[in-house]
Amino acid sequence: RPFHVEPTNIVSANDDMQRVTDEASAMHKRIHYYSRLTSPADKALVAPDHVLPAPDEIYVYSPLGTAFKIDSCTDGYGKNSSIVTIFVIWNTMMGTSILSIPWGIKQAGFTSGIILIILMGILTLYCCYRVVKSRKMIPSIDTSNWEFPDVCKYYFGSFGQWSSLLFSMVSLVGAMVVYWVLMSNFLFNTGKFIYNFVHDINVTDIVPGTNGSNKVICPNAAGDHPPQNMSTMFSSGNSTGFQLFEEWWNKSQTVPFYLIAVLLPLLNLKSPSFFAKFNVLGTVSVVYLVLLVTVKAAHLGIHLEFNWFTENEFFVPEFRVLFPQLTGVLTLAFFIHNCVITLLQNNKNQENNVRDLSIAYFLVGLTYLYVGVIIFASFPSPPLSKECIEQNFLDNFPSDDIMSFIARIFLLFQMMTVYPLLGYLARVQLLRQVFGNAYPSVFHVLILNIAIVGAGVAMARFYPNIGGIIRYSGATCGLAFVFVYPSLIYVISLRRAGQLTWPALIIHIFIILLGLANLIAQFLL
């Protein structure tokens, strides 16, 4: 008799094979994801050779802790096309800094702000080139799995290892502090919107602002113009209930503490992989912010007056001595240097790395310019002064503004899913370096998380200025990863190869001095 197999058995065998394949693929993705969260030199989480790869999916690690998946955009061997590589770098760099760019332009002056965004983009791009080239300039060593901190360890020994850890922790903890301040802000405004809507309360008259349906407010001027008639606060309801709500729902005194109940338990989870599924919201949030800015500008119009060095009641000079505050923000806004090697390593055509990196930086700079310039130019002056532009430009729109409410909801949810990933990165980098184990005990992890959360609560309570936090942390970590280490490593490698020239030495010393001046200026202005 000829060999016969029932069709049902064939289907069953195919299903079993598919199930095994799916399980192996899922295992690979989990291992690959966690390997991106630790140092590339750490072999503990590197996927073994016998694990089935998932060629059509690739996870990308962001320096601020976001890891997101690109589906069906590879060449079948785990490599990205140039368009995907450009998008990945753009998406990685776009972060909370975008909310402070309009404020930074106001601090620097409109014309000088535009110039500084372009110049800082070019400077940080050049330093990024030096980072990408640094690994290839090490002879006779396999550096295929190295990231930039590993290069720092090679050139500077234990000092390079621990200093890169320190500055990496500054960027991570700084990001987590900014997130806590912003989450407190967004949660406060969201709760205020819901309460006012439910109780039919109108409090827009308390804060100075424009009239009409597209209202823009100046929160910092509210203290100088207290309402003379308390009845303007309410269209219905009583003042006692509103005042009680204001007492228990305060942006700096109560709301930052409410977040502890939700986020501190999440930080203590051993695995943050669940939250990585929501990181696509980061891209959605940026796209929505661009849409919001465009719609608001279309309704508000353009309000510009060029005063080159003098200040008047409604406009700021085109050039201001406070410009280093913008350069501090931009240092973090263009910061990708500690993971750019990994991002470009997944590029299918390695010969296009320089081109793709340049295009990505151009798009990032264009996005920052668009948001910053449009918000600054459309800010209604008069009747409001340009000085009213807030460090978080969403604060210039009242809590009952529908488009701003949607933006705050998007950003709040996205940040609450990214925050545990940032905490996991901080835990892995610090505890593994100090104790040799990313989870030495519940006690160690709890103490670290309490310290990080405490820093966020303290800043949200006493210094809720995201522009200030971003520029301080950006100038600090940027001094090492953007200005000093790339320049020093390039000079040392040229000297060892006997190719160092005086122009190259002078240029890179000048870059180091710029980074140092950028950091010092943050504490003087």
Description of the molecule:
- The chain crosses the membrane at residues 83-103, 109-129, 162-182, 253-269, 281-302, 322-344, 356-377, 405-426, 438-463, 469-492, 504-524.
- It catalyses: L-glutamine(out) = L-glutamine(in); L-asparagine(out) = L-asparagine(in); L-tyrosine(in) = L-tyrosine(out); L-leucine(in) = L-leucine(out).
- InterPro entries: AA_transpt_TM (IPR013057).
- It is a single chain.
- This protein is mainly alpha-helical and 525 residues long.
- It has 2 domains: 22-69, no CATH class; 82-221 and 249-524, Up-down Bundle (Amino acid/polyamine transporter I).
- It is 61% helix and 2% strand.
- The protein has a two-stranded antiparallel sheet.
- Strand 1 (57-61) and strand 2 form a beta hairpin.
- The model is unreliable at 1-74 and 224-236 (pLDDT under 50).
What is the mean predicted local confidence, pLDDT?
Answer: 81
Named CATH topology of the largest domain = Amino acid/polyamine transporter I
Tell me the name of the CATH homologous superfamily of the largest domain: Amino acid/polyamine transporter I
Following the backbone from N to C, one meets helices and strands in this order, namely: HEEHHHHHHHHHHHHHHH
First-last Cα distance = 92 Å
Q: Decide which structural class fits the backbone.
A: mainly alpha
Q: Classify the helix fraction into a percent range.
A: 55-70%
In terms of per-residue confidence, which ranges show pLDDT below 50 for 5 or more consecutive residues? 1-74, 224-236
Number of structurally distinct domains: 2
Tally of DSSP helical segments: 16
CATH domain class name of the largest domain: Mainly Alpha
Please state the overall shape, judged from the principal axes of the Cα atoms: globular
Task: Tell me the radius of gyration.
Answer: 25 Å
Number of strands: 2
CATH architectural name of the largest domain = Up-down Bundle
Strand residue percentage: under 5%
Membrane topology: Multi-pass membrane protein
Family: Belongs to the amino acid/polyamine transporter 2 family. SLC38A9 subfamily.
Protein name: Neutral amino acid transporter 9
GO molecular function: L-amino acid transmembrane transporter activity; metal ion binding
